[in-house]
């Protein structure tokens, strides 16, 4: 939840110039270290964050990378 609020706050800031270009890397992996409990939504959260940055954050689709389970 905190990460989403940070992303929303950053996306709402105006670009410093008309020539500014934004890049994004959203990473999520449900599997942790051996012996740790598997996460349920880390990969889904990364996908939603990626989509939000492209749709609302002025990040071009070709400048946004989504890594799930990597």
- The backbone outline, from C-alpha atoms, is elongated
Share in β-strands: 5-15%
Given helix and strand content, the structural type is alpha+beta
What is the count of DSSP helices, taking H or I runs of 4+ residues? 2
Average residue pLDDT: 85
Parts with pLDDT < 50 across at least 5 consecutive residues: none
Which strands sit side by side, in order, in the main sheet? Answer: 1-2
Largest sheet: 2 strands, parallel
The amount of helix comes to 25-40%
Number of strands: 2
Topology pattern, helix = H, strand = E: HEHE
How big is the Rg? 14 Å
Q: Could you give the distance between the termini? A: 22 Å
Summarize the structure.
This protein is an alpha+beta fold. The chain has helices at residues 2-12, 42-56, and strands at residues 24-28, 64-68.
Any overview of this molecule?
It is elongated, with a radius of gyration of 14 Å. It is an alpha+beta fold and 70 residues long. The relative contact order is 0.27. β1, α2 and β2 form a beta-alpha-beta unit. A two-stranded parallel ribbon has the order 1-2. It is 37% helix and 14% strand.
What are its keywords?
elongated, 37% helix, 2 helices, 2 strands, two-stranded parallel ribbon, 70 residues, alpha+beta, single chain
